[in-house]
């Protein structure tokens, strides 16, 4: 693939041989417009023996233009770089064949945004993507916390039930033991135990 980049004055003109049988590119569009770059894309009519393309890029109301030419390629798009922010541009695309070039496509006009606008829209997109990632992480974290808390509560309840059963089982035995001890120490006359002393 061979690229040739030239910066020329339009008043000097660009001499290219035009092939009569070659149609100009169609559906020329601009996309991914940023403050300093953009991408121009196009379609080629069927049957045209195209081996490359040529693009002329010009600032509106300025006589200087940039000429981009690429041969031995079937690509249908090209990046425009080193643009100035808040500037109007006009772009033409031509097809290149072995016999010459096609007529110019219809002029395509576009305007680059401010650098701040590009950064703002980019940061909004990034924040949105970060929020999506954070939401997913937050949900996963919340689920983990909920599961851990439920397991802890289940453990506490199980421990409480076990201790309660032990306490409950020991409680009647303690009453029986107390009853046995008190009956062993007591006499029929004095159920609380001990002997009565007579006063002298």
TrEMBL record:
Broad class of the protein's primary localization: membrane
Fibronectin type-III domain sequence ranges: 24-115
Biased segments, Basic and acidic residues type: 171-181
Keyword annotations: Glycoprotein, Membrane, Secreted, Signal, Transmembrane, Transmembrane helix
Membrane topology: Single-pass membrane protein
Cellular compartments per GO CC: extracellular region; plasma membrane
Protein name in the entry: Fibronectin type III domain-containing protein 5 isoform X2
Signal peptide: 1-19
Bilayer-crossing regions: 143-161
Lineage, top ranks: Eukaryota, Metazoa, Chordata, Craniata, Vertebrata
Stretch list, region Disordered: 171-200
InterPro entries assigned to the protein according to its UniProt record, in alphabetical order: FN3_dom, FN3_sf, FNDC5_C, FNDC_type_III_4/5, Ig-like_fold
Localisation: Membrane; Secreted
Domain of life where this protein originates: Eukaryota
